[in-house]
Amino acid sequence: MNWKKWIKYAAIVIIILMATSMFWMNRQGTRIYGGLTKKVDHEQFKPQEGAFAITNVNLLSADGERIISNQTITIADGLITAIDSAISIPSGTTIINGEGKYLIPGLIDTHVHLFKSPNDLLLYIANGVTEVRELIGEKSHLEWKAEIEAGRIGPKMFVASPRVGSFEAMEGMFMSWSQGYLNISTAEEAREKVTSLHEQGYDGIKVYSQINKESYVALIETAQALNMPVIGHIPWELGLADVFKYGQSGIGHFEELMNALSREFSQTRNIGSFSGREEEFLTYVEERSDALAANLIKSDIAVTSTLWLTESFAKQPFNIEKVLEEVELDYENPGISEWVSYIPQGLGWLPEVNRYKLPEGLTPEQREGSKKYWETYAKACQLLASNMSARGVKIMTGTDANLPPTVPGFSLHDRTLKKDRISFDFASKAMLDTKQNRPSSIVSA
Q: 162 φ, ψ to 5°?
């Protein structure tokens, strides 16, 4: 009789331990995606109403090719009413002295990840980014979007779906629980899932590398019928010809094109497949550029750059401290940047958890080989960027924000303005007040 009681008690203990573990893991998951960081009160940054005039400001021309000096811009009811060097300013107008400052149109970042970090919405506005495209969407992002449309301060939001892939049953359950993936394996599942995402209010579909061809084709067809763009990776099971054939709307990185060319080049899906043949691979990329550009234009497929991030892959594994010194680390959500050491290759920024750090125990020769590989990886993407631009491919700015070291809002400026930075002063108070309360020991890491 006693043994039955012991079994009962043991079962109760096991259940309690499992429940406690699940609670702890879910809380840790919320923390490392930025959800436990103190939230800034966005109500304090409500836009002021009334008439305004910005005087003596340097204005970026409509074509983006020149700066027009000493302009005055008048604004009423949230709209620009006049732009000129000499304007009669009505009485009662609030005057803002723009001397030494620059005024530009709102910027758009077409590849961001907010995760669980709503403070980032203020960082975008503070950096003049007035529209973002969230490419791993979740329910909270749809809620933030609705709040912004109702008057909350923040950028206009396009919210794509969670990542859609194809996994075996157990792996799919884990990927869904741990990273929010949507797992589909058949055409029927794809059609049902896209329809459901449309009904939930998502603006587009984020397709990921692991999706199988059957699901991909059905997903594209259903999304097109619902007028939902399909954006993201080039699936491993498909070649570039399939992407052009079926009508994917956008490609999320230059590196997706580079990786597809790498698979062509080596006839394998392994990411490191050109290692040891770097110069030969770069020649192949150059030779394929004309046809690749022509097909992208013909298929009306837009490519988001994320080039600045890709270039950092050749730097972060070898001198992460210097890389972090060059970005605005103290504005990054500490939950994301600090991550946890027991989940490798996550989103961690700091040296001990950095997403791109090299494995322990490499020989000097192996380290040098890795360095050459990542430098070639970045150079291949640079070649594609240059060649696609010269040939007229539709290219959009994007940062992959919140992946190390792309700080939301700031990172859109880092590539183009770092060498001769223009002082943007859209909302300096908002930038100061949205610092993520990072301890000084972490800031200096």
A: -55, 165
